[in-house]
Amino acid sequence: MKVLLSWLQEFAPFPSDDPVALGDVMSDLGMAVESIEHIGQGLDGIIVAKVLELRRHPDADKIQLVDVDTGNGEPLQICCGATNLSVGDTVPLATLGTTMPDGMEIARRKMRGEWSNGMLCSGRELGLGDDHSGILLLDGSLALGTAIVDALGIVPDVLFDLEINPNRPDAMSVAGVARDLAARLGLPFAIAEPNVEVIAGDAPSRISVAIGDPDLCGRFHARVIEGISIQPSPRFIADRLTALGMRPINNVVDASNYVMLELGVPNHTYDLASLPGGALQVRWARDGELITTLDGTERTLTAGRDGVIANAEDVPVGIAGVMGGASTEISASTTTVLLECAWWQPMAIARSSKFMGLRSEASARFERGTDLAILDLAARRLAELLAPSGARLVEGAVTVDGQLPDRSPVTVRTSRVNRLLGTELAAEDIASLLRPIGFLVEPAGQVGEWSVTVPSFRLDTTTETDIIEEIARHHGYSRIANRVPTSTQTGSLTPLQRDRRVLRQVLVGLGIHEAMPLPFLAPGDLARAGLPAEAVTLTNPLAAEESVLRTSLRPGLLRAIAYNESHRTEGALLFELGRVFGLPGVGATLPDEREHLAVILAGNSAPAAVEVLAAIEQTLGLPAITVDQQTAPPGLHPGRCAQLLIDGVLVGEVGEIDPFVLEAFGVRERSAWLQLDIAALLSFPHGEHRYRSISRYPSSDLDLAFETPDNVSAASLTDVLRSSAGSVLVAIDLFDVFRGGTVPDGSRSLAYRLRLQSPERTLTDDDVAGVLAAAVAAAATLGANLRG
Amino acid sequence: MIDDITRISDAAPALVLAATTIDQLRGVESDLLGKRGSLTELKKGLGALDADGRREVGAALNVARASIEQVIETRRLELESVERAATIAAERLDLTEITTSRPRGTTHLVTQTWDRLVDVFVGMGFTVAEGPEVETDWYNFEALNIPAAHPARGMWDTLYVDLGDPETVLLRTHTSPVQIRVMTETPPPIYAVMPGRVYRRDTADATHMPVFHQIEGLVIDRAISFADMAGTLESFTSAYFGGSIHSRLRPSYFPFTEPSAEYDINCVFCEGKGCRTCSQTGWLELGGCGMVHPNVLRNVGLDGEEWTGFAFGFGLDRLALMRHGVDDIREMYTGDLRFLEQFPS
Predict the structure, then answer these.
(1) Considering only CA atoms, which of A244, A230, A98, A235 is closest in space to residue A161?
(2) Considering A426, B92, B328, B337, which has the largest number of Cβ atoms within 10 A of its Cβ?
(3) Residue A21 belongs to what domain range?
(4) Cβ contact, residue pair A515, B228, below 8 Å
């Protein structure tokens, strides 16, 4: 909502000297000032000039040379980039030495070798409207050389652009902003009675209104205005509309818009001649009803959603509260209008305009709730504005009520106000904050309680809390002292939140970087990643490439690797900790949402991922994770992958991305892969890290190499060796794997170092020999034989 | 015999000095003093002498041995010093040749900011709550006092998913549904923050992403007022941004709080003096806050006469960008190593 200082001053005597301070007050009241524009300032050096000649710039296509006359008959050369000029046009010229409203200084300068002795200006450059499509063309009768401010009669003004919250229907009008501001500043506020002449006649005998559906329309006020002659609006109306961002059309449309902006009462004028019998009826639309609206668009209406104003033949002539119809539009031949000032149910208009995708200045006001009490005043104000063109208001009005909003008084307790705000306001303070903004404050039964009636322009306010917000607003948020609650609770992270930090530390320590790819996938991404295609899809994605919710972190990380490779970053090591979304389980509404950790190591083969897994396992103190190569997880290199299990429960997968999948994602490097289901993994007891006493006795190492068949996993050999050695085994390390040489095909040599130590004594040669014999025997059960 | 001793003793210094390495010196030492060394050999002849002769020669031998040992020791120290100098010289490294670093990864900027924020709030006595990213309409809107036709729904561009009836399941547009879950599942008093990932139907540009992060806070207790909210936010502001940065509250509107406020902080770039980032206002809009709306309390079964509370929330990504001067939010989400590596943690 934009407001002009001069317009505000018509309602209360606001000072002109410090617009910025005034803006600060508006912001503090919740009408946030987004910008302050000083109109008609910085125009001192701008004068009226006439185009004498247009010439091509010898050395530039986009600039022409314009000779202008500034009143002394001497041609003055200007370089100009605009193309809308013709010889004889009257234009604004910024003379040398002028400082433009935006701060730019005009100096004599050469543009591609040609002198420019000033600048011809667009409307926007002068702060006169938004037009920047060409040079502002002026009335040819203006005296050349006159200051533009005098020539155009520009009165300096200040334009505030305000952001109005949905709960401030009152602030959708100049008068409403003025009322709020005057209340805070302690200035008298009044909306003047329109000074309008009424001509004899009996309007109610010429028009009729019926409200068929009272849940759509609360009040319909209709009047007749005669003597309409369509012509341009007076200058002050056109200027103010322009300043507030509306285009002047003609006197009738402009007066209608002016009243809407000034009083917040959207209204509509019908050409009375186009309404059979002058009759209107208000009802909900029927499905499939058609109407061509003022913007020339044919629209199909929906029952239970849209309201209509229909004529005597039951044909819609307007969409209630949203936009009028073309069939009754005023035209050059209009002489008499029916003026509608109505109050529509806010929710009805909100729904209708939202689902029709048609938002208008009118609907924006109706859906917040307009002022029911000033419909009559608004109608007379409109007639007053039109009077200079000869229009006359006909005596009598038709006012029909539907369902009116509830305005029963609300009890406001001083104790509750202070409890909710942390203030120490007296009951009288509360009354004196509310009364200036139109609330009727009367004593209620109890001491310290008020019975408060909400004004007609604040229908959003219906509860005690709503009113407390108004009290807080006018008391001033900044005047409420800071206090810090005494929490009885201890701040802490959950075990999961602590574990996540540990996980990230481990990965970062291993040189891996955390990435956050978007969780949206394109259809087919999952299949390309070798994963099942079933996934939750979006109803209204922005693009098809973002229409699927990921079930795995794999596609996103693969894409990140491809991105890095394409930017010449090889060997990127990335991890992500994020949610994946499976289809809902039986009876569930929401997807099977899980947190996964995934690690991708470009330029690395599977063992690198196994090492990362081991680091995680050790740091988190998890039970032993079984690396099970019996089943290949989908999309991984079938010979280099494994499921990860703890006590038979699937907790993740490790290995290498399938070469087909790498190719499908355009990844050139072999990439190791690790994925863990965080909830499954951390459901096992972990993080204990119990102390084991460190033996004071010397340890002995036993190095053993076994010729082991390929179909016997190292893990299984390690397991039998570990259990055969018993309690004296403190460490077992598979330190060499060797194929070829004297090792026959189909086997490899696995070399272990067993470190033996007793907490109680020094081990004897016999002890070590015993472990050796047991280890050899145990290995033999798997077909692994000790090498000589 | 004395002559032999004198001869060996006199010759020894030259032999010792002729050794130029520790090894050679060891050889010389062995030749002179070793088991079969010349002086040792002479000592074996002592047995053939009478008592006086043994005393005299023995004493001479001891003197000679001590003198030779002295010379060898001196030479050893010299040679060791030379050899050490040679080794040191040979092992010299130009450490400025080393331009790589031990590989260390980084956590994401969002994670770093997340942890930093959470740490401040934990220090202020808050716990940290989380919830699902895909939510029902009830948790995301209805329970928060935003019924279906409410004009305020337009404040969020919602991404819906194809589950259940149309427009009943969605990607949460804010972390506020976690507030509802916390209030439904935990009896008050509640002091909790809720960081999380949120979604909007927004086209990605330099300042918007369809996926971003928020942190919200919720306090519900018996005598919580607007003043407590203002004080809490002020404490957080100076704890997180530094003691010279303060907060202010301005009236605003949110369906789930009343009274509602915009939460601004002094511009962290100009410390309130006015600069381009803050459009010369000296203030940055950080987020929203307000007293929990009575309807929201009712929806989670709390008596608004007994319990009051406040909630606040703000964007997390913007704080990350601001802290490091990143001017395009999209860069955070490409996984580009050249970006990630810039922010070690």
Answers:
(1) A244
(2) B337
(3) 2-40+158-185
(4) no
